[in-house]
Specification:
Two copies of one chain form a homodimer. By secondary structure, chain A is an alpha/beta fold. The first copy, chain A, contains five helices and five strands; from the N terminus they run E-E-E-H-E-H-E-H-H-H.
């Protein structure tokens, strides 16, 4: 199984692709798409969208996992901007007929770093240990996206073990 | 000049295309894209996106105008959902290299119906008079989108009259 994880943002969108290699999670690629803040929003969204389509075409993942932000904390215009960036991941996934799962950050941290309160640095350290790759040089948005992908991989494995047919992590909308 | 107006929503997205025919605004097409609420959000967004691309390909407008919601009034998850739907219009416009203008509803109503407090019904009546077409059978989301398109056409005409090179109605983000 191969998963594309996305941490959406209208300025920086993190992405991470991991795969399950006989029970071990393996890093395929991770990085960020930076959309210049002075560009109009539609150009930035196009850049994010094209970057994601390129990843889907090159890596052919089986699923897309997206970080669902804490909307309660964010100001409404920030919530709308996150919605716009996240929509690029949802659209790209739908165009490739891939299932999309969304995970709130607390769930990602609880799954990947064993507790929900871990900060981004702790998540990166946990990922370094679990993937066996030094991730210290990667931007935190990239490792956050990788964490979402790993979170989905772990839940999918757990689900398979428990005989569930589908991962049902997806929140109701 | 031909303008595509969009009133974005994740369940119902209104669209309206109008053109300037020697100083008179003329209705080209208007309607709604309904995305079944029980479908996952990514399928709904794909439907909206494909509908908009189809309109852009068939009508080749010179500009896209999008209704900018009152984010202060909307709950944050509603704001995020509107952001997602609006992102489809922004992306489709960027892919066709079209300029995008965003107008808040008060500005649309003030331009089209002469006062900001008009309700959707009053906007529809004002449009019926200005376009010379009976719009009573159209859904209000469709006529709202038409109103955004007309608002842009009026501002563009005013701008041209005043010698401005570009319409600068776009809000800062």
């Amino acid at each position: 199984m191969r998963v594309l994880g996305v941490d959406p943002g209208t300025i920086v969108t993190g992405f991470g692709v991991i795969e399950d290699a006989s029970g071990e999670a393996r890093l395929v690629e991770c990085g960020v798409t930076r959309a210049p803040a002075k560009q109009p929003i539609e150009r930035r969204l196009l850049l994010i969208y094209e970057g994601l389509l390129d990843l889907l075409t090159r890596h052919r993942p089986n699923a897309v996992a997206v970080e669902e932000p804490f909307v309660v904390q964010a100001p409404r215009n920030a919530a709308m901007a996150v919605g716009e960036a996240r929509a690029m991941a949802l659209l790209a996934a739908a165009q490739h007929s891939l299932p999309v799962s969304q995970y709130p950050p607390t769930r990602v941290r609880a799954t990947v770093a064993n507790y929900g309160a871990g900060d981004k640095e702790q998540v990166r350290t946990a990922l370094t240990l679990q993937l066996g790759v030094d991730l210290s040089a990667y931007p935190l948005d990239a490792t956050d996206a990788l964490a979402v992908a790993l979170c989905h991989l772990r839940h999918a494995a757990l689900d398979a073990m428990m005989g569930n047919e589908r991962v049902t992590a997806r929140g109701r909308r």
